[in-house]
Structure formats: C-alpha cells, structure tokens
C-alpha cells in the first residue's frame, strides 16, 4: 500500500469515527421530554401539597394534571422569581431545617416542563398522593385525637370571631408530646388556631367566666387598658402609648397580647397558613400535665361577607407521645408589645419589644406574628458581654403566610441576654391589604387591629429527668 492510499484510508476511518462520535453525542444531548406525571408531580407533592390541594387556602390545587395544567405559565413565573413556595427570611441570618425554597434543579425541571408544552406524560408514572391530602395526618397516626365536642357554624355575614373551646384530655398521668398537629375542620373560615394547655382549675374558671359573661383579666393593669368587643379583646384607643417598651418594662407587662401564660396557659401548638407542623427533635418534648384541658383559641373569619353559604367547622388536635421523658423540655414564649399605636397614614411605623433572658436557654424556633399592616420583623440579641447579633430578619412579612422557622442547630442564649424584637407597620394607602388607612390602630384580636409578637420555642433542661437521674429513677 502506498503512503498516499494509507493516508486516505486513515482519513476515511477518522471521518467515520468522527461522524459516529458526533452522532452519538447528538443523541446523548437530546433533551428528554419532561412530563407532569414523572417529573413535575413529585415536586408539587413534596413542596406544594400543604396548601395547593382541594379545599385548602391556595386558590387552586396542583395535585393532578387536570388541575395544574391551566396554571402552567403562572407556575413557571412564580417559581423562577422564587415567589413560590414562599420563604421570607433574609438568608444572611440563620439556617433553617424547614427552608421551603426549591432547589435550582426543581425550578429547571418545572421551566422545562412548561417550555416543552406542559405535557402530562404517562399517568402510570404518577406517584401516590401524600396521605394527608386525602384527609390523613401529616405527623403520622396520632396516639390520641382531641376534638371540639360539637360543630361551630360561621354565618355568611359573621364578623371576625375569637371563640374558645375547652377539651378535657382525661390524662391520668403527665404526658410528653413529641409532635402535635391541628387539623381545621374547615379551612375556608378557620384563619388560625392556638392550642393552650390549661390546668383543670384555670380551665374551669375560664369556662365559668365565659358562661356568666364575667370575663375579667388576672392582670388589673391589663384590664384597665383592654375591653371586650363581643368575643374580641382590644386595647382602648385612649390607653397609654409606648411604641418602644425596651426602656419601660412595666408598660411591657400591662397588656399581654395573647402571649401571657398567666392568661391563657402554656402554648402547645398552633395552626396558621404556612406555619408548618409542631414536630420536635427526639430528646425534646412539651409537657401536658395530668388532668389538663386543651383550650382551642379559634379565630373564625367570614372574610367580610365573602362566604356564599354558612360554613361548619369542627377542628381537632392530634398528639404523638414521646417514647420516654425527654432530656430537654420545650417552652414557647413571646416577646410582646401591646401598648403601641399606629397613626393613620403612617407607612413605616416602628414598634419595639424586649425581654431579658432569666436563665440559660437554647432557641429552637422563631415565629413572627403581626396582622395586615405588618411589614417586617427582626430578632436581635445583645449578649451580656455587649455583643449584638441578628438572629432573624423577615423583610417582607405576610399575614397570609406565617411560617415557624425551625433552626438547623439550636442557638445558645446565656442568662442576662436581651432579646429585642423590632417591627414596622404600613398603615398607608400604599398597603393594598390595609383595612382602613384613615384610622389609628391599636393592639387587638381581630385582623383589622394589629398585634406584635415575636414567638420562639426554647429548650430547657427537664427537671424531672434530672431528678430521676440523681435518685436512681426513684
């Protein structure tokens, strides 16, 4: 073979190999079809099912192709801008175990699905629906379920109502709660629920007071500032005003704002749009003493005549017990200012509240709470050595999405640390959710009033566990 023929043969072989390589590469780069059933539904089921299911707070369900398909382009827009799923904290402060933000790969999958024509794919590829979307419990099968004894009816034109329901636990011994889930009977009218633990004497006194109409406060100063408007507690418009209670602790205690244990009992669990479940790490739990009642503080709203027919609710609470007494007990507290006054038209009114920690604690969760005029909230601490640190910063608070933020690692706070909660309110016409920008606003239960509470869960040593260890379990 001549050198020329050898060269031509190698050239042809190389070309053939090159073509084969290019052809193979082209095949490998061919984008696979992204379908709802196989690729998108698992993302929706995992990240969106809490709200985007039938008869829940979201405007549409995403649990089937038929339901999701008409919203495809809107879904793409919301996930690309990261407006959905909602996640409000500034990422510079704190790392949270329940971070709702979608992974970029999930966003890319949804975008590819929409851009590819939002195809259904093979229905056989569809995973099973999450059990809780079909009426099940998200925490798993509860050890006990406590329910309202009878239905409550919300009429078409009913005003905002706070109604208390007392449910006896009938516990013969102290119980440690590992997980709790409040299941509203009707999410159309249940805006939020707080479940308080009340000893029998407290519960019986409160029930008798409500039956006789003699609802009074245990705090005389609080009673002088507040009044009852039907079932709603509100601060009097002419009550003393302190927008920053950090330098006036006496005023800080004058109105409890719904967070004082001397008024309601210890907080066990809560439900609000976007809040998430009350599930605590193994080795930690909340205590429900023997013989206690659980008081459901129900906030019902007919949404200003938005109902077309009366709605019926019977809310219940599921509890899972810890397998043994925990090393750490969980206690929920709130840093509250209930003495503020937001002037009419003020677009950036600042309200501040403080608490000095009386013992070493560990912070487990944060949950800011305001109403429709709430703009932002920040949690700061000043340690005994003078160092200041921001723990949480929620620059865009939403009353319609009140998340509890679970820390990946508890934050140790030494005795003497000052916890400072700073909030801003928009009472101007620029706030599209503002019920009435022409009126001054005080603290109150209804959504057209305001609240300012920096809730948090803290870990404390369990004294009963430590005592048992010292005495050999006796």
Which key phrases capture this entry?
21% helix; Jelly Rolls; disordered N terminus; nine-stranded mixed beta sheet; 474 residues; four-stranded antiparallel beta sheet; 10 helices; alpha+beta
Structural category:
alpha+beta
Uncertain runs are 1-30, 252-262
- Helix count equals 10
Characterize the quaternary organization of these chains. Answer: single chain
Instruction: Write down the CATH class of the largest domain.
Output: Mainly Beta
CATH architecture of the largest domain: Sandwich
Indicate the mean pLDDT: 87
Number of domains: 3
Number of separate strands: 21
Q: Give the termini distance in whole angstroms.
A: 100 Å
Biggest sheet layout: 9 strands, mixed
Estimate the global geometry from the Cα principal axes.
globular
Q: CATH topology of the largest domain, which one?
A: Jelly Rolls
Rg: 27 Å
Describe this structure in words.
The chain is α+β, with helices and mostly antiparallel strands. It folds into three domains: 36-133, no CATH class; 137-210 and 266-323, Jelly Rolls (Sandwich); 220-255 and 327-474, Jelly Rolls (Sandwich), CATH 2.60.120. 21% of the residues lie in helices and 29% in strands. The protein contains ten helices and 21 strands. It has helices at residues 3-29, 36-47, 65-68, 72-80, 104-115, 200-212, 220-225, 249-252, 261-264, 463-470, and strands at 144-147, 152-154, 161-168, 175-183, 190-198, 226-229, 232-235, 266-271, 278-279, 284-288, 293-300, 311-313, 316-321, 328-336, 349-356, 361-369, 374-382, 388-394, 405-413, 418-425, 453-461. Strands 1, 4, 9, 10, 13, 14, 16, 19 and 21 form a nine-stranded mixed β-sheet that branches. The protein has a four-stranded antiparallel β-sheet with strand order 3-11-5-8. A hairpin with a 5-residue loop joins strand 17 and strand 18. Helix 2 (36-47) packs across helix 5 and helix 4 (72-80) runs antiparallel to helix 5. It is globular. It starts with a helix and ends with a helix.
């Amino acid at each position: 073979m001549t050198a020329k023929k050898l060269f031509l043969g190698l050239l042809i072989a190389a070309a053939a190999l090159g073509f084969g390589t290019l052809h193979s590469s082209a095949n490998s780069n061919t984008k696979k079809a992204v379908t709802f059933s196989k690729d998108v539904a698992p993302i929706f089921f995992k990240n969106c099912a809490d709200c985007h299911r039938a008869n829940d707070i979201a405007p549409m369900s995403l649990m089937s192709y038929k339901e999701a398909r008409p919203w495809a382009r809107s879904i793409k827009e919301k996930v690309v801008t990261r407006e959905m799923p909602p996640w409000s904290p500034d990422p510079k402060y704190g790392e949270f175990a329940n971070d709702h933000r979608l992974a970029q790969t999930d966003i890319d999958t949804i975008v590819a699905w929409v851009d590819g024509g939002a195809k259904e794919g093979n229905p056989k590829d569809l995973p099973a629906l999450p059990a809780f979307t079909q009426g099940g419990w998200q925490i798993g099968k509860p050890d006990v379920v406590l329910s309202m004894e009878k239905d409550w009816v919300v009429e078409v034109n009913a005003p905002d109502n706070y109604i208390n329901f007392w449910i006896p636990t009938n516990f013969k011994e102290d119980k440690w709660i590992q997980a709790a889930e409040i299941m509203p009977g009707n999410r159309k009218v249940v805006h939020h629920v707080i479940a308080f633990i009340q000893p029998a004497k407290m519960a019986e006194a409160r029930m008798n007071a409500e039956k006789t109409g003699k609802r009074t406060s245990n705090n005389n100063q609080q009673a002088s500032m507040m009044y009852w408007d039907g079932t709603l507690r509100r601060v009097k418009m002419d009550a003393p005003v302190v927008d920053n209670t950090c330098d006036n602790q006496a005023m800080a205690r004058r109105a409890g704002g719904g967070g004082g244990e001397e008024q309601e009992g210890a907080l066990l669990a809560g439900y609000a749009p976007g809040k998430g479940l009350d599930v605590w790490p193994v080795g930690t739990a909340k205590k429900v003493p023997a013989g206690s009642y659980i008081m459901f503080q129900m906030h019902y709203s007919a949404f200003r005549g938005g109902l077309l027919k009366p709605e019926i609710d019977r809310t219940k609470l599921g509890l899972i017990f810890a397998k043994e007494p925990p090393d750490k007990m969980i206690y929920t507290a709130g840093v509250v200012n209930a003495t503020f006054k937001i002037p009419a038209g003020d677009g950036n009114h600042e309200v501040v509240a403080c608490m000095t920690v009386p013992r070493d604690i560990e912070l487990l969760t944060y949950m800011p709470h305001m109403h429709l005029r709430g703009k932002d909230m920040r949690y700061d601490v000043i340690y005994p050595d003078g160092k200041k640190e921001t723990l949480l910063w929620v620059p865009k608070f939403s009353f319609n999405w009140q998340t509890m933020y679970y820390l990946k690692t508890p934050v140790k706070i030494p005795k003497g640390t000052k916890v400072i909660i700073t909030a801003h309110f928009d009472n101007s016409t620029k706030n599209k959710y503002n019920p009435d920008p022409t009126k001054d606003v005080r603290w109150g239960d209804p959504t057209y009033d305001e609240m300012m509470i920096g809730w948090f869960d803290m870990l404390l040593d369990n004294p009963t566990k430590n005592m048992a260890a010292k005495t050999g379990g006796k």
